[in-house]
């Protein structure tokens, strides 16, 4: 029986046969929906700027007012006509860039403090060069920080100022306040400040190992590279960065999330190198000697007892801090000799305490309430 | 999140990883806190420093023979550049002070004297 062969191609004037039982209209709708969904997913991704080009950080207007060795003292322009009498100096950690406190408009502790009426200065640190390898803890406290305090006293015309120290900046601020009781420090606030080396289990274990020779490391390198500092911080939570990147992928269609994440990521990878002598002091006197706890921390030719701090004191710790766990910072409040002292433990991590989305509602208003009453 | 995205196995794996990261990290950190690891890391660092010195010296000689800059030469340039940046920062500070003095017409004791400044009279808001 002869069979009729089906035509190889559909005549142009006829619509193609429906696929999977769908009509032409349904296929058109599906194609349209797929394209729209793809665009919705990808366009925000295309808008994501490259960290180097578009992710501006530290945008609050400021002026460089004093330099000494690696110290860069910035003064932020007041934004109100009436400000508190007592200027405020933020002391950053020598291993961290100051822009974490001024990441972006709306995400900036500095901007918040200016809007509340504070006169804000920041002691930030430039990357040290080989000629700075001799800078010790004594140089940071007695020379650079002292120079910054003196400059602010002269420039503002006020004899008193408030110190706010973040992380190792809190160590520097505490040491300075205890060592220089007559230099006009009116208030002291420290965020996540390491004081008890026993609470920094991993670093203490490494530092106390006989095969870890800090003297040789300093002698050979002079300046401890930022990458080495970064690696040692990463070791405290080795998979956190990978988890952050995966979380970024899960939120790639959320521009605000992506930008905030990239800013944090950029800061986290931007660790400052450390002058060799400062690293040696840190390992010898803090990690091995634990001299804050014994009340005889050596700085230059003097010995510091935090019990000599008598000014109003605030310590803020982060409940989930893995870099400076509360076990490493909780003793500070007991060691300080002030009668007006307070400790606040806030939910959050080492960085999210000061700069995360929750900092806006948690730390910043509490800090303002504490500072405002003591800045007149 | 749409049903499609909830059923995306890659996305589910990513979410699982993010949630369990802390526990995995803690396990790795505990391992690194072990005495043997600490000793091994110390030894590795000593060897790395020794190798670094040996390699740097031999490489520097080799590069010098080829009339090429060594890492030391690059670091020297970097240091010089840093010194130039320091000098620029100092000039920036002095220019600022000069600008303020010019604004008031005479040399003041304080660099900001004579320049309009906000009043330091703010009081904290009364508690509600």
Mean pLDDT of chain B: 81
Helix coverage percent of chain A: 40-55%
Order of helices and strands of chain B: HHHH
| Cα distance spanning the termini of chain A | 108 Å
**How are the strands ordered across the major sheet of chain A?**
1-2-4-3-5-6-11-12
User: Count of helices of chain B?
Assistant: 4
List the secondary-structure elements of chain A in sequence, H or E. HEEEHEHEHEHHEHHHEHHEEEHHEHH
Task: Report the β-strand fraction of chain A as a percent range.
Answer: 15-25%
Instruction: Give the oligomer, counting copies of the same chain as homo and different chains as hetero.
Output: heterodimer
**Large-scale geometry of chain A:** globular
Number of strands of chain A: 12
Superfamily (CATH H level) name of the domain at 62-200 and 290-373 in chain A: Alpha/Beta hydrolase fold, catalytic domain
Please name the defining characteristics of this protein:
heterodimer; A: 376 residues; alpha/beta; Rossmann fold; 8-stranded mixed sheet; two-stranded antiparallel sheet; globular; disordered N terminus; B: 128 residues; mainly alpha; 4 helices; flat
Fold topology:
The complex is a heterodimer of chains A (376) and B (128).
Chain A (H helix, E strand, L loop, with lengths): L23 H24 L14 E7 L2 E6 L11 E4 L17 H7 L4 E6 L11 H20 L4 E6 L1 H12 L5 E7 L9 H8 L5 H8 L1 E2 L1 H9 L5 H11 L4 H14 L5 E2 H13 L2 H4 L2 E3 L2 E3 L8 E6 L7 H4 L2 H4 L5 E6 L5 H4 L7 H11 L3
Parallel strand pairs in A: 3-4, 3-5, 5-6, 6-11, 11-12
Antiparallel strand pairs in A: 1-2, 2-4, 7-8, 9-10
Helix pairs in contact in A: 3-4, 5-10, 6-10
Chain B lengths: L2 H4 L2 H24 L2 H31 L5 H34 L24
């Amino acid at each position: 029986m002869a069979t009729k062969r089906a035509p190889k191609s559909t005549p142009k004037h006829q619509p193609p046969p429906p696929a999977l039982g769908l009509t032409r209209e349904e296929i058109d709708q599906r194609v349209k929906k797929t394209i729209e969904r793809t665009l919705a997913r990808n366009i925000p991704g295309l808008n994501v700027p490259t960290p180097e080009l578009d992710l501006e950080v530290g945008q609050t207007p400021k002026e460089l007012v004093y330099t000494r060795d690696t110290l860069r003292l910035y003064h932020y322009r007041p934004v109100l006509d009436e400000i508190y009498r007592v200027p405020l100096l933020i002391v950053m950690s020598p291993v961290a860039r100051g822009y974490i406190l001024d990441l972006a408009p709306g995400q900036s502790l500095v901007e918040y403090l200016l809007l509340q009426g504070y006169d804000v200065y920041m002691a930030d640190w430039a990357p040290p060069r080989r000629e700075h390898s001799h800078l010790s803890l004594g140089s940071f406290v007695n020379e650079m920080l002292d120079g910054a305090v003196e400059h602010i006293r002269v420039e503002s015309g006020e004899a008193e100022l408030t110190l706010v120290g973040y992380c190792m900046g809190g160590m520097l601020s505490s040491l300075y306040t205890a060592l220089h009781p007559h230099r006009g420090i009116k208030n002291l606030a420290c965020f996540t400040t390491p004081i008890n080396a026993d609470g920094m289990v991993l670093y203490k274990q490494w530092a106390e190992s006989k095969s870890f020779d800090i003297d040789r490391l300093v002698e050979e390198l002079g300046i401890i590279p930022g990458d080495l500092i970064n690696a040692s911080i990463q070791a405290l939570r080795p998979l956190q960065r990978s988890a952050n990147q995966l979380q970024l992928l899960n939120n790639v269609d959320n521009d605000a999330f992506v930008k905030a994440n990239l800013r944090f990521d950029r800061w986290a990878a931007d660790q400052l190198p450390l002058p060799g002598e400062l690293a040696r002091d840190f390992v010898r006197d803090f990690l091995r000697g634990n001299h804050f706890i014994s009340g005889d921390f050596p700085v230059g030719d003097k010995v510091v007892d935090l019990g000599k701090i008598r000014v109003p004191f605030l310590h803020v710790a982060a409940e989930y801090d893995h870099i400076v766990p509360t076990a490493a910072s909780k003793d500070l409040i007991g060691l300080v000799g002030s009668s007006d002292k307070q400790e606040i433990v806030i939910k959050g991590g080492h960085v999210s305490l000061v700069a995360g989305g929750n900092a806006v509602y948690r730390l910043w208003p509490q800090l303002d309430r504490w500072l405002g009453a003591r800045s007149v | 999140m749409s049903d499609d995205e909830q059923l995306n196995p890659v996305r589910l794996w990513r979410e699982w990883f993010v949630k369990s990261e802390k526990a995995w990290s803690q396990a790795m950190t505990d391992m690194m806190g072990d005495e043997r690891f600490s000793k091994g890391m110390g030894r590795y660092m000593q060897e790395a420093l020794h190798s670094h010195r040996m390699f740097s010296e031999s490489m520097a000689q080799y590069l010098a023979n080829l009339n090429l800059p060594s890492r030391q030469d690059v670091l020297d340039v970097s240091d010089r550049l840093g010194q130039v940046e320091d000098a620029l920062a100092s000039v920036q500070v002095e220019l600022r002070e000069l600008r303020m003095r010019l604004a008031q017409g005479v040399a003041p004791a304080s660099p900001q004297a004579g320049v309009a400044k906000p009043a330091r009279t703010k009081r904290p808001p009364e508690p509600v």
